[in-house]
Protein backbone atom coordinates (compact mmCIF):
# COMPACT_ATOMS: atom_id res chain seq x y z
CA UNK A 1 0.00 0.00 0.00
CA UNK A 2 3.04 2.24 0.23
CA UNK A 3 3.43 4.94 2.84
CA UNK A 4 0.75 7.29 1.52
CA UNK A 5 -1.70 8.22 4.26
CA UNK A 6 -5.12 9.68 3.65
CA UNK A 7 -4.82 11.92 6.71
CA UNK A 8 -2.02 12.66 9.16
CA UNK A 9 -2.82 12.72 12.90
CA UNK A 10 0.68 13.72 13.98
CA UNK A 11 0.57 16.81 11.78
CA UNK A 12 -2.70 17.83 13.44
CA UNK A 13 -1.20 17.63 16.95
CA UNK A 14 1.93 19.52 15.85
CA UNK A 15 -0.19 22.24 14.23
CA UNK A 16 -2.27 22.62 17.37
CA UNK A 17 0.89 22.88 19.46
CA UNK A 18 2.55 25.47 17.23
CA UNK A 19 -0.60 27.51 16.86
CA UNK A 20 -0.53 29.55 20.08
CA UNK A 21 -4.06 30.79 19.48
CA UNK A 22 -5.52 27.36 20.18
CA UNK A 23 -7.18 27.30 23.59
CA UNK A 24 -6.86 23.51 23.78
CA UNK A 25 -3.64 22.32 25.48
CA UNK A 26 -1.48 20.19 23.20
CA UNK A 27 1.59 17.97 23.50
CA UNK A 28 3.84 16.33 20.93
CA UNK A 29 4.20 13.23 23.16
CA UNK A 30 2.93 9.87 21.91
CA UNK A 31 1.99 6.76 23.89
CA UNK A 32 2.60 3.25 22.54
CA UNK A 33 -0.88 1.68 22.38
CA UNK A 34 0.61 -1.85 22.29
CA UNK A 35 2.14 -1.59 25.79
CA UNK A 36 0.48 -3.53 28.62
CA UNK A 37 -1.31 -1.16 31.02
CA UNK A 38 1.33 -1.29 33.85
CA UNK A 39 4.06 -0.22 31.37
CA UNK A 40 1.77 2.33 29.74
CA UNK A 41 0.80 4.01 33.01
CA UNK A 42 3.99 6.12 33.55
CA UNK A 43 3.71 7.40 29.96
CA UNK A 44 0.07 8.41 30.53
CA UNK A 45 1.01 10.18 33.78
CA UNK A 46 3.85 12.00 31.99
CA UNK A 47 1.43 13.02 29.26
CA UNK A 48 -1.09 14.42 31.77
CA UNK A 49 1.66 16.41 33.51
CA UNK A 50 2.87 17.77 30.16
CA UNK A 51 -0.62 18.79 29.05
CA UNK A 52 -1.91 20.16 32.37
CA UNK A 53 0.84 22.17 34.04
CA UNK A 54 -1.06 22.45 37.36
CA UNK A 55 -0.43 18.71 37.84
CA UNK A 56 3.27 18.76 36.89
CA UNK A 57 4.43 18.67 40.54
CA UNK A 58 1.97 15.99 41.73
CA UNK A 59 3.41 12.67 42.85
CA UNK A 60 2.78 9.81 40.43
CA UNK A 61 0.80 8.04 43.18
CA UNK A 62 -1.91 10.72 42.76
CA UNK A 63 -2.79 9.26 39.34
CA UNK A 64 -4.68 6.05 38.62
CA UNK A 65 -5.21 4.62 35.14
CA UNK A 66 -7.69 1.95 34.07
CA UNK A 67 -8.96 0.63 30.76
CA UNK A 68 -12.54 1.60 29.86
CA UNK A 69 -12.73 -0.18 26.51
CA UNK A 70 -10.69 -1.23 23.55
CA UNK A 71 -12.74 -0.87 20.39
CA UNK A 72 -11.64 -2.08 16.98
CA UNK A 73 -9.86 1.23 16.33
CA UNK A 74 -9.13 2.92 19.70
CA UNK A 75 -8.14 2.33 23.30
CA UNK A 76 -10.08 4.28 25.93
CA UNK A 77 -8.56 4.89 29.38
CA UNK A 78 -10.11 6.40 32.51
CA UNK A 79 -7.70 8.59 34.49
CA UNK A 80 -8.37 9.76 38.04
CA UNK A 81 -6.20 12.49 39.54
CA UNK A 82 -6.10 13.34 43.25
CA UNK A 83 -5.27 17.04 43.47
CA UNK A 84 -3.47 18.79 46.36
CA UNK A 85 -6.74 19.78 47.99
CA UNK A 86 -7.91 16.13 47.98
CA UNK A 87 -10.41 16.70 45.18
CA UNK A 88 -10.58 13.88 42.62
CA UNK A 89 -10.77 14.71 38.91
CA UNK A 90 -11.68 12.20 36.19
CA UNK A 91 -10.61 12.30 32.54
CA UNK A 92 -10.68 10.04 29.52
CA UNK A 93 -7.60 9.45 27.36
CA UNK A 94 -8.32 8.11 23.90
CA UNK A 95 -5.38 6.52 22.10
CA UNK A 96 -5.81 6.21 18.35
CA UNK A 97 -5.24 2.75 16.94
CA UNK A 98 -2.10 2.40 14.82
CA UNK A 99 -2.56 3.49 11.20
CA UNK A 100 -6.06 4.89 11.75
CA UNK A 101 -4.98 8.02 9.85
CA UNK A 102 -5.51 5.91 6.72
CA UNK A 103 -9.25 6.07 7.35
CA UNK A 104 -9.87 8.99 9.73
CA UNK A 105 -9.48 12.72 9.11
CA UNK A 106 -8.27 13.93 12.55
CA UNK A 107 -8.33 17.61 11.62
CA UNK A 108 -12.00 17.33 10.69
CA UNK A 109 -12.70 15.44 13.92
CA UNK A 110 -10.96 17.96 16.22
CA UNK A 111 -12.73 20.88 14.61
CA UNK A 112 -16.13 19.20 14.94
CA UNK A 113 -15.64 18.16 18.59
CA UNK A 114 -15.38 21.80 19.70
CA UNK A 115 -18.76 22.73 18.22
CA UNK A 116 -20.52 19.46 19.06
CA UNK A 117 -19.32 19.72 22.65
CA UNK A 118 -20.64 23.31 22.86
CA UNK A 119 -24.00 21.99 21.61
CA UNK A 120 -24.04 19.41 24.42
CA UNK A 121 -22.81 16.34 22.53
CA UNK A 122 -20.09 13.98 23.66
CA UNK A 123 -17.25 14.71 26.02
CA UNK A 124 -15.45 18.06 26.23
CA UNK A 125 -12.08 18.17 24.46
CA UNK A 126 -9.42 18.96 27.08
CA UNK A 127 -6.20 18.30 25.17
CA UNK A 128 -4.59 16.75 22.10
CA UNK A 129 -1.32 14.86 21.75
CA UNK A 130 0.68 12.96 19.14
CA UNK A 131 -1.60 9.94 18.87
CA UNK A 132 -4.72 10.76 20.80
CA UNK A 133 -6.84 13.17 22.79
CA UNK A 134 -7.90 13.84 26.36
CA UNK A 135 -11.58 14.43 27.08
CA UNK A 136 -13.87 14.89 30.06
CA UNK A 137 -15.12 11.66 31.62
CA UNK A 138 -18.71 10.58 30.92
CA UNK A 139 -20.24 8.58 33.77
CA UNK A 140 -22.33 6.17 31.73
CA UNK A 141 -22.25 2.67 30.21
CA UNK A 142 -22.15 1.88 26.49
CA UNK A 143 -25.20 0.35 24.86
CA UNK A 144 -25.34 -3.08 23.21
CA UNK A 145 -26.86 -3.66 19.75
CA UNK A 146 -29.98 -5.15 21.36
CA UNK A 147 -30.43 -2.00 23.52
CA UNK A 148 -30.77 0.12 20.39
CA UNK A 149 -33.84 -1.87 19.34
CA UNK A 150 -35.80 -1.08 22.52
CA UNK A 151 -38.62 1.29 21.49
CA UNK A 152 -38.01 3.78 24.33
CA UNK A 153 -34.26 4.01 23.59
CA UNK A 154 -34.82 4.06 19.81
CA UNK A 155 -37.11 7.08 20.27
CA UNK A 156 -34.49 8.86 22.42
CA UNK A 157 -31.70 8.12 19.91
CA UNK A 158 -33.94 9.56 17.16
CA UNK A 159 -34.65 12.73 19.17
CA UNK A 160 -30.95 13.24 19.93
CA UNK A 161 -30.01 12.60 16.29
CA UNK A 162 -32.49 15.25 15.19
CA UNK A 163 -30.68 17.75 17.48
CA UNK A 164 -27.25 16.53 16.38
CA UNK A 165 -28.16 17.13 12.73
CA UNK A 166 -28.97 20.75 13.53
CA UNK A 167 -25.45 21.58 14.79
CA UNK A 168 -23.62 23.92 12.41
CA UNK A 169 -19.91 23.19 11.92
CA UNK A 170 -17.97 26.01 10.20
CA UNK A 171 -16.30 25.37 6.86
CA UNK A 172 -17.44 23.70 3.68
CA UNK A 173 -20.83 21.99 3.80
CA UNK A 174 -20.09 19.81 0.83
CA UNK A 175 -21.21 16.25 1.64
CA UNK A 176 -18.09 14.09 2.07
CA UNK A 177 -19.64 10.63 1.75
CA UNK A 178 -18.69 9.85 -1.83
CA UNK A 179 -15.28 11.57 -1.56
CA UNK A 180 -14.49 9.35 1.42
CA UNK A 181 -15.81 6.15 -0.18
CA UNK A 182 -13.85 6.70 -3.40
CA UNK A 183 -10.71 7.46 -1.34
CA UNK A 184 -11.24 4.16 0.45
CA UNK A 185 -11.71 2.39 -2.89
CA UNK A 186 -8.42 3.81 -4.24
CA UNK A 187 -6.55 2.54 -1.17
CA UNK A 188 -8.40 -0.77 -0.87
CA UNK A 189 -7.89 -1.79 -4.51
CA UNK A 190 -4.06 -1.87 -4.45
CA UNK A 191 -3.27 -3.87 -1.31
CA UNK A 192 -0.73 -6.67 -1.00
CA UNK A 193 -0.88 -9.14 1.89
CA UNK A 194 2.07 -11.10 3.31
CA UNK A 195 -0.32 -13.83 4.41
CA UNK A 196 -1.00 -16.01 1.32
CA UNK A 197 -4.47 -17.07 2.54
CA UNK A 198 -5.47 -13.41 2.99
CA UNK A 199 -4.06 -12.60 -0.44
CA UNK A 200 -6.05 -15.45 -2.00
CA UNK A 201 -9.32 -14.17 -0.48
CA UNK A 202 -8.47 -10.60 -1.46
CA UNK A 203 -7.80 -11.65 -5.07
CA UNK A 204 -11.39 -12.90 -5.40
CA UNK A 205 -12.69 -9.32 -5.11
CA UNK A 206 -13.59 -7.56 -8.38
CA UNK A 207 -12.86 -3.88 -7.77
CA UNK A 208 -14.34 -3.05 -11.17
CA UNK A 209 -17.60 -4.51 -9.91
CA UNK A 210 -17.35 -2.52 -6.65
CA UNK A 211 -16.61 0.67 -8.62
CA UNK A 212 -19.63 0.10 -10.89
CA UNK A 213 -21.82 -0.50 -7.84
CA UNK A 214 -20.64 2.76 -6.24
CA UNK A 215 -21.26 4.84 -9.36
CA UNK A 216 -24.69 3.30 -9.88
CA UNK A 217 -25.65 3.88 -6.23
CA UNK A 218 -24.34 7.47 -6.23
CA UNK A 219 -26.33 8.26 -9.39
CA UNK A 220 -29.48 6.81 -7.82
CA UNK A 221 -29.16 8.51 -4.42
CA UNK A 222 -28.35 11.87 -6.05
CA UNK A 223 -31.92 11.84 -7.42
CA UNK A 224 -33.35 11.67 -3.88
CA UNK A 225 -32.15 15.19 -2.97
CA UNK A 226 -31.52 14.06 0.60
CA UNK A 227 -30.85 16.88 3.10
CA UNK A 228 -27.17 17.44 3.90
CA UNK A 229 -26.44 17.58 7.65
CA UNK A 230 -23.40 17.25 9.89
CA UNK A 231 -23.61 13.48 10.39
CA UNK A 232 -22.08 11.22 13.04
CA UNK A 233 -21.60 8.44 10.42
CA UNK A 234 -20.72 5.77 13.01
CA UNK A 235 -23.70 5.55 15.33
CA UNK A 236 -23.14 1.98 16.51
CA UNK A 237 -23.95 0.78 20.04
CA UNK A 238 -20.39 1.39 21.30
CA UNK A 239 -20.73 5.09 20.47
CA UNK A 240 -23.93 5.47 22.48
CA UNK A 241 -23.72 5.76 26.26
CA UNK A 242 -26.53 5.77 28.81
CA UNK A 243 -26.53 6.98 32.39
CA UNK A 244 -29.47 4.93 33.63
CA UNK A 245 -29.92 6.85 36.91
CA UNK A 246 -30.30 10.14 35.08
CA UNK A 247 -31.84 8.50 31.98
CA UNK A 248 -29.37 10.56 29.94
CA UNK A 249 -28.15 9.38 26.55
CA UNK A 250 -24.78 10.47 25.14
CA UNK A 251 -23.38 10.32 21.60
CA UNK A 252 -19.59 9.88 21.65
CA UNK A 253 -16.64 9.46 19.23
CA UNK A 254 -17.03 11.76 16.24
CA UNK A 255 -14.05 10.32 14.34
CA UNK A 256 -16.03 9.72 11.17
CA UNK A 257 -18.23 12.81 11.49
CA UNK A 258 -18.65 14.98 8.38
CA UNK A 259 -21.22 16.81 6.36
CA UNK A 260 -23.14 14.01 4.72
CA UNK A 261 -26.65 12.85 3.86
CA UNK A 262 -29.30 12.51 6.54
CA UNK A 263 -30.38 9.11 5.16
CA UNK A 264 -26.83 7.75 5.36
CA UNK A 265 -26.56 8.50 9.08
CA UNK A 266 -29.89 6.83 9.84
CA UNK A 267 -29.38 3.89 7.46
CA UNK A 268 -25.92 3.31 8.89
CA UNK A 269 -27.35 3.32 12.42
CA UNK A 270 -30.01 0.75 11.46
CA UNK A 271 -27.32 -1.50 9.94
CA UNK A 272 -25.58 -1.49 13.32
CA UNK A 273 -28.56 -3.29 14.90
CA UNK A 274 -26.81 -6.35 13.44
CA UNK A 275 -23.68 -5.86 15.61
CA UNK A 276 -20.18 -6.94 14.56
CA UNK A 277 -21.58 -10.43 13.95
CA UNK A 278 -23.57 -8.92 11.07
CA UNK A 279 -26.83 -10.69 11.92
CA UNK A 280 -28.91 -8.72 9.43
CA UNK A 281 -32.12 -10.48 10.46
CA UNK A 282 -32.01 -7.84 13.25
CA UNK A 283 -32.25 -4.93 10.78
CA UNK A 284 -35.39 -2.99 11.84
CA UNK A 285 -38.62 -3.73 9.97
CA UNK A 286 -40.77 -0.97 8.51
CA UNK A 287 -42.81 -0.45 11.71
CA UNK A 288 -39.65 -0.09 13.84
CA UNK A 289 -38.19 2.34 11.29
CA UNK A 290 -41.38 4.41 11.26
CA UNK A 291 -41.27 4.57 15.09
CA UNK A 292 -37.74 5.99 14.82
CA UNK A 293 -38.65 8.40 11.99
CA UNK A 294 -41.62 9.86 13.92
CA UNK A 295 -39.38 10.82 16.85
CA UNK A 296 -36.67 12.08 14.51
CA UNK A 297 -38.92 14.22 12.29
CA UNK A 298 -41.13 15.66 15.05
CA UNK A 299 -39.58 14.96 18.47
CA UNK A 300 -42.34 16.90 20.28
CA UNK A 301 -45.30 15.57 18.25
CA UNK A 302 -44.25 12.18 16.86
CA UNK A 303 -47.82 11.13 16.08
CA UNK A 304 -48.35 14.13 13.79
CA UNK A 305 -45.79 13.08 11.16
CA UNK A 306 -47.52 12.53 7.81
CA UNK A 307 -47.48 9.18 6.00
CA UNK A 308 -45.90 10.95 3.04
CA UNK A 309 -42.95 12.17 5.15
CA UNK A 310 -42.50 8.73 6.71
CA UNK A 311 -42.44 7.02 3.33
CA UNK A 312 -39.98 9.56 1.87
CA UNK A 313 -37.55 9.08 4.77
CA UNK A 314 -37.99 5.30 4.52
CA UNK A 315 -36.89 5.38 0.85
CA UNK A 316 -34.01 7.75 1.58
CA UNK A 317 -32.74 5.73 4.56
CA UNK A 318 -32.89 2.35 2.86
CA UNK A 319 -31.14 3.64 -0.26
CA UNK A 320 -28.28 5.14 1.76
CA UNK A 321 -28.14 2.02 3.94
CA UNK A 322 -26.63 0.38 0.82
CA UNK A 323 -23.89 3.05 0.81
CA UNK A 324 -23.17 2.23 4.44
CA UNK A 325 -22.39 -1.39 3.50
CA UNK A 326 -19.97 -0.30 0.76
CA UNK A 327 -18.34 2.32 2.99
CA UNK A 328 -17.55 -0.11 5.83
CA UNK A 329 -16.69 -2.96 3.46
CA UNK A 330 -13.93 -0.89 1.84
CA UNK A 331 -12.88 0.51 5.24
CA UNK A 332 -12.46 -3.07 6.46
CA UNK A 333 -10.10 -3.96 3.60
CA UNK A 334 -7.77 -1.08 4.52
CA UNK A 335 -7.93 -2.17 8.18
CA UNK A 336 -7.17 -5.79 7.18
CA UNK A 337 -3.83 -4.54 5.88
CA UNK A 338 -3.10 -1.79 8.42
CA UNK A 339 -4.58 -2.68 11.79
CA UNK A 340 -2.71 -4.79 14.36
CA UNK A 341 -6.01 -5.48 16.16
CA UNK A 342 -7.11 -9.11 16.17
CA UNK A 343 -10.32 -8.85 14.14
CA UNK A 344 -11.27 -10.60 10.90
CA UNK A 345 -11.50 -7.43 8.81
CA UNK A 346 -11.26 -9.34 5.54
CA UNK A 347 -14.20 -11.52 6.54
CA UNK A 348 -16.05 -8.34 7.55
CA UNK A 349 -15.60 -6.98 4.01
CA UNK A 350 -17.43 -9.99 2.57
CA UNK A 351 -20.22 -9.84 5.19
CA UNK A 352 -20.93 -6.20 4.36
CA UNK A 353 -20.48 -6.51 0.59
CA UNK A 354 -22.66 -9.61 0.38
CA UNK A 355 -25.40 -7.88 2.34
CA UNK A 356 -25.19 -4.94 -0.07
CA UNK A 357 -25.68 -7.33 -3.01
CA UNK A 358 -28.52 -9.16 -1.25
CA UNK A 359 -30.45 -5.95 -0.55
CA UNK A 360 -29.58 -4.05 -3.71
CA UNK A 361 -32.40 -5.06 -6.07
CA UNK A 362 -35.22 -4.41 -3.58
CA UNK A 363 -33.78 -1.07 -2.42
CA UNK A 364 -33.08 0.16 -5.95
CA UNK A 365 -36.59 -0.79 -6.98
CA UNK A 366 -38.07 1.06 -3.98
CA UNK A 367 -36.06 4.20 -4.78
CA UNK A 368 -36.85 4.18 -8.50
CA UNK A 369 -40.57 3.77 -7.82
CA UNK A 370 -40.53 6.78 -5.49
CA UNK A 371 -38.57 8.95 -7.95
CA UNK A 372 -40.93 8.29 -10.88
TrEMBL record:
Its EC number is 2.7.1.82. Pfam families: Choline_kinase. InterPro entries: Kinase-like_dom_sf (IPR011009). It comes from the Eukaryota. One of its GO terms (molecular function) is ethanolamine kinase activity. Coiled coil: none annotated. Belongs to the choline/ethanolamine kinase family. This is ethanolamine kinase.
Amino acid sequence: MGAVKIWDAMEVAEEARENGTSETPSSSLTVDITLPLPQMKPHIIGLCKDLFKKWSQLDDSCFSVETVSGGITNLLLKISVREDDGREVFLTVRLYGPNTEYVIDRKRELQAIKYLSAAGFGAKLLGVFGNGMVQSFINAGTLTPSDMRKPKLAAEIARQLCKFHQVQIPGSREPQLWNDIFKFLDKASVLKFDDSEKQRKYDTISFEEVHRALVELKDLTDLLNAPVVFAHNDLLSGNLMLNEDEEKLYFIDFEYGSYSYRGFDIGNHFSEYAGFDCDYSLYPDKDAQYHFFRHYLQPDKPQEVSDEDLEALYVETNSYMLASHLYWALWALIQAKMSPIDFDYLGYFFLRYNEFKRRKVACFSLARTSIL
